[in-house]
Amino acid sequence: MAYTKCWLAYPAIAGAACADLTVSVEGAGPILDSARAELARGLAGLYGAALTDVADGDIRLGVDTALDPEGYRIHAENGRCTIEGGSDTGVLYGVFALLRAAQMAGCAWKDLTVQEEKAPANRMRMLNHWDNLDGSIERGYSGESFFFKDDVVLVDEARLADYARMLASVGINAIAINNVNVKHAATWLITDRYYAPLRRYLEIFGAYGVKIYLCINFAATMDLGGLDTCDPCDPAVAAWWKEKAADVWANLPDLGGFLVKADSEGRPGPFTYNRTQADGANMLADAVAPYGGHIIWRCFVYNCQQDWRDTKIDRACAGYNAFMPLDGQFRDNVTLQIKNGPMDFQVREPVSPLIGGLQHTHIMVEFQIAQEYTGQQRHVCYLMPWFRQILDTDLRTRPDNGTVAALIRGAGNGMAAVTNTGNDDNWTGHDLAAANLYGFGRLCYDTTLDPGAIADEWLRLTYGDNPPVEQTLHSILMRSWPAYEKYTAPLGVGWMVNPNYHYGPNVDGYEYSRWGCYHRASFDGIGIDRTPSGSDYCHQYAPELAEMYASTDTCPEELILFFHHLPYDYRLKSGKTVLQHIYDTHFEGAEEAARFYDEFMGLKPYLDEETFARMEARFAHQKEHACEWRDVINTYFYRKTGVEDAHGRKIYH
Ligand code: GCW
Hints:
Blueprint: E1 21-25, H1 30-47, E2 51-53, E3 59-63, E4 72-77, E5 80-85, H2 88-105, E6 114-118, E7 124-128, E8 148-149, E9 152-153, H3 157-169, E10 174-176, H4 195-206, E11 211-216, H5 220-223, H6 235-251, E12 257-260, H7 277-288, E13 294-298, H8 318-323, E14 334-339, H9 353-357, E15 362-368, H10 384-392, H11 404-407, E16 414-418, H12 434-445, H13 451-463, H14 467-487, H15 543-550, H16 560-563, H17 578-601, H18 609-641
Parallel strand pairs: 1-2, 1-3, 3-5, 7-10, 7-16, 10-11, 11-12, 12-13, 13-14, 14-15, 15-16
Antiparallel strand pairs: 4-5, 4-6, 8-9
Helix pairs in contact: 1-2, 6-7, 12-13, 13-14, 14-17, 17-18
The chain binds 4-O-methyl-beta-D-glucopyranuronic acid.
């Protein structure tokens, strides 16, 4: 089977076939060509209408520079339509928005009325690929890379162009194509070994308004340059990077910039030379500045050689401690990329305090739609409800509006996600994982969108007007993250997974490891004390939040074990003990996964055979695997406590 078109299939709108249409495009260039081509594709699919160019068309595309550069305005009525963008990219976004609106309306072209004006909520709307040059993908659950194989940069023109279309259709405007862990051949991406194919990438993605970024090896001065140091304050290092940047931009003129993982999980960085993260980022920023280059510097810096015996160190504190003292010291073309939580993409974490703390530094929040800790695209887990909660969280560090959504507005700021794509036919492993790809883009562009409405759009665009499919899958998507949370690690504690793979239950998998992610389940209780009597992590937040988290009375219960070590018989607001809550949620979560399977089976008549079979296998696995989670977790806590389930359900002794 050829790969799917995901949400760009443009299935015919029933009973809406219409006569051919005309278009006039003001201006010219590759992005406007893409806009016109997309319009033609969409109208052909939805209405069976061909599109021809005339002077005063039924549909008019053009630029109005009074609009936001990536914004658009649509006016459609009585079979006529004007789409204006603040730039060519804005026009392209407007075309995608019109086609989306047409599918949601599901009516004849002449009856379609659209009045819409939009500007993006965020300037940077990015995906990070963790693709390795050998073709593997770190934390990839959808096959192999469609960018690289056997140390070659692949140029699969059709697939790359379709991918660029998918990105632009939801407003993604940048991608980093290689893994942040830059090793081996990937270090050479910034050399003439790879410039020719990369140039083609710039053209293909550039025609859809998508900037390409490369991840670089901070030690490239040593691995490529023959120097014996990568000390950012060494003039020879700075000079090497200046020359390298000149060479890179001479060959890749529209490159967005570099994304850097330094001093993290064994990657080289400024700390080796007693330099700061700002020294490292600014040295690179100065090198790329003459070409309009941008440095995105990750804040995932922590000690991954921790001794579990040392209960004083708390990994959650690390990012804030490393970067807060540097606020205001970064160049204007540097953006710090901060994971949404202080740990690492668990199913639930508090929002990283660094996001609110930094006041004079550009920031991007890093999310993960690759479902590393949320079921690896074998379980369904629609993440937009979770991301919306994060965006809506007010960190109280600004007098007016301290929500994450507000903090990431403006130049140099935005959102990134570790992507969930690969060369599988359906792009995302689980068909329903495509809702996270679609949804992430939509949410970046408009942080006020309702996750349920995003799901509805994605379902309509993907499956057409198909009420049983839309209703059933909408319901499953919206229940999926809560269900996953219920049958995995409880009350914000996280990490009860098999080490390395991060799949499946292993309660003590990380408990005695060097990675700093412990739950401290003991005979007397479970959870990590992050109040003043423990690591005092909670005081990295503004006073209102610090107080809220520090008290068991006010700490949100879904995070209570993230902040407190509580006895198993501690009573939650529901009146249940912590232990009974664990038992209940694990039984409920597994029951919910079984219901997902049953509900999905009812869709057999409404999906094509191949799609049905692909999804059925995943739902069947999820149902079984949720039972494994339930039983491992419940048995573990039964054995710690000797206390039976209050409702007499089966717990293995
Ligand atoms: O959680 C860890 C992942 C690593 C990843 C790292 C990071 C790319 O398990 O695979 O490395 O996060 O974000 O850098």
